[in-house]
Amino acid sequence: MAAYALSTRGLTKRFPGVLALDGVDFGVRPGEVHALIGENGAGKSTLIKVLTGVYAPDEGEVLHGGEPVSFGTPLAAQRAGISTIYQEVNLVPLMSVARNLFLGREPRGRLGLIDFARMHRESERTLREYGVHTDVRRPLGELGVGAQQMVALARAVSVDARVVVMDEPTSSLEPREVETLFGVIRRLRADGVAVVYVSHRLDELYEVCDAVTVLRDGRVVHTGPLKGLERLKLVSLMLGREIGEVRAEGTTKFGGDHEAASAEPVLKAEGLRVPHQLHGVSFAVRPGEVLGLGGLLGSGRTETAKAVAGALTPSAGRVTVAGSPVRTGSPGAAVRAGISLLPEDRKSEGVVPGLSVRENIALAVLPRLSRAGLVSEARIDALVRTFMDRLRIKASSPHQKAGELSGGNQQKVLLARWLATEPRVLLLDEPTRGIDVGAKAEVQRLVDELAADGLGVLLISSDLEELIEGSDRVVVLRDGAVVGELTGDDVTEDRLMEAIAAAAEEEPVTEVPAASVPATSEDEGAPDVTPEGGGSPAGQLTPHDGESAAPDPLSAPQERKETPHG
Amino acid sequence: MAEATALTRTAPDRSAVYAWLQAYGVYAGVAVLLLFNVAFTDHFLSAENFRTQAVQVAPILIVALGMALAIGSEGIDLSVGSVMALSTSLVALYLGWGPWTALAAAVLGGVAVGLVNGSLIAFVGVQPIVATLALMVGGRGLALVLVPQLEDVRDPGMRNLGSGDLLGVPYPVLVTVALVVLVAFTVRRTTFGRQLLAIGDSRPAARLAGLPVRRVLLCVYAASGVLAAVAGFLATARLQASDPTSLGTLMELSAITAVVVGGTPLSGGRVRIGGTVAGAVLIQLLTATLIKHDLPPSWTQIAQAVVIVLAVYAARERGKR
């Protein structure tokens, strides 16, 4: 077997109070795609950062081509042929796409000036291979997150990397883009590049990875080929739980449907328009119902949630909560009306990283916990204790900075902040993205409970399984307009993909997208009607019940592998 | 193995040292200067000297309190020196109605400037450094329009406020102490304070959490304006003159220095009032020490620069791993 391209021996890394890596032996061979998995806090990110020169190990060593190395800086690692693609795009948004692609190695013409014509030509050619068709002179920031990720990938790969480390590269990609990415990965493998692939999505691992290393609590608990390793076994290794337990609980923690059909909508959005983003979006959420928002990246899901929550100012349209209109464009007004948004970008729009967990939880309810502007510490303590217990937020103390928590716990802190406001509507934009399996399950279970308690929930998720299992009804968006709705038995991955695909065939986009839509601003009265005429009351229908849990991949791991989903 | 373990120990220690320096370095600096002066400066340990130092530091400190709020909200207020000038002009104009009327006029002037700053920042979306720069230029202009040249301030009430004392503690010092307590309390215990820190740390997150971002920012700059106006009033009372040409010049820089040296990060989200007090005292002691030892005033500026660089260095190193 070939020698390792990059490996570690007895790697240990400590942070104040935490043993992040504990004697980790890890290695990836040329031409191998090696999955690195584990729950949040297992040490994946730390391992990557040590591999790529961001952190220096406390003990042990990194071997590059068999030789011990210490990179010291990410640049040194890059020079040695180790490229990293981080979860968040690390490029310069204001510079053009082409400049970003060639940053630091621009083609020079005579006089040492940048040869823009060549740069643009080569950029376009390179990016086409990655399925990005765009004007490379435009600032990178104008591209969607998925396309930006592709640019980052193209950049990382084109610097002649021998090892490529990908930290959750698909977390903001569309299924189509994921396919492109996998194509690139397979090509890299054929070229003998070693790929370290970090992801929470098991389907992807089985599709593209050869070997797997499972980390738990800073230790390697399993390493070996992926083939023949049962999916269920993998999950149980990650969680450190018995297989039976995992099987009993399934992958998502969503229960059945909620009885909501008869009630009056708690949230109604009518004809929401945001220039260039939304073209008359209408929908209604009833108390106790989880309404899914389906659609591709850029279809207006996030914008819809933001417009409802006042984070985007709509140019037209109405939002009502339990019949009373809410002033649009004001997050404060939305919060007071009982609308809570768990934003997609929880790091920059969700938690306040420098404040403690305690302050973060209390943030939105401060006025309610104060008298004459003076904060009551005792009441905050009581509130924080309640929610930290109820949501099982893991922090060293309520005074730990929220920014130091793992993604899952940050998300729980945000949920706690909103639940403290006693909301009537919860808008969840990618609530489980980038959080570990355990926390994901908890968040999903919580959403279920909240809906059962009568909250109206709007769920956005690019994880189809989560969207389907979590939602009672799904409204499908495309190009900022509602193009379909699934109810009852139609809430399945297949029907959802059909709805998205059907809509996507209506290219070119130039026609008014709202034309085929039942619920536009001209037709505000009936946002609940299904275009397919299915119209069966959602409450009576269970797309999956406990026995015939067909969409549950863990009870049927073998079939699952073949399922071409996403 | 032993070597690796040793490395392990030094790495966190370094960052811990800088963390300590950022948080407490300013107190250590003050202590060092005090000890140095006790040892080498004649008559340093006299009540009279302490009174002088305290009275001199009062305006810087009061202005720095407002600056700390602005910086905590991830902003800055460059207009404070000009607000002091405007304040002294208004005092000269309204002293005829008595010192309290003059104080009220000065404070109203400060509020007005602060509200303009705050509106530009919160509603128009101008960057704080630009908005307050405009007011820094315009404010002094307005002050000079109101009172074109130095005017003596001859009012027994004013003189008493500037030079009188209660049980040996000069009035300006009492006022300063009261304001320090008030601002510290506001930052720690009020909704406003918490909201300010959240906004300073992450404005998008604070906005989405439904916080009244604009109102808070408006209040921050209004408060900074009021504090600068009070500082201008006290300075006028002490100097027995209204001199809008020079009063408060470069005060914004001294205030920023006090705040930054005191460990409040320029990136917002954090306000250290204790550190700010120590920062102002440090600058004052540094100046006094150099003057007492017959070094030219320009040395003070160089010394200040060194202190600023050290403070920023400690803050930066602390962030590293």
UniProtKB/TrEMBL annotation, chain B:
Task: Classify the source by domain of life.
Answer: Bacteria
Q: Which spans are transmembrane here?
A: 17-40, 52-71, 78-97, 103-123, 130-149, 169-187, 216-235, 247-266, 273-291, 297-315
**Gene Ontology CC terms, in alphabetical order:** plasma membrane
Give a Pfam family name. BPD_transp_2
Main location per the UniProt record: membrane
Keyword check for Transmembrane helix, yes or no.
yes
GO molecular function ontology, one term from the record = transmembrane transporter activity
Where located? Answer: Cell membrane
Q: How does it sit in the membrane?
A: Multi-pass membrane protein
Looking up PANTHER family in the UniProt record yields: ABC TRANSPORTER PERMEASE PROTEIN YPHD-RELATED-RELATED, RIBOSE IMPORT PERMEASE PROTEIN RBSC
Q: What name goes with this protein?
A: ATPase
From which organism does this entry originate?
A: Streptomyces nanshensis
Please name the taxonomic classification of the source: Bacteria, Bacillati, Actinomycetota, Actinomycetes, Kitasatosporales
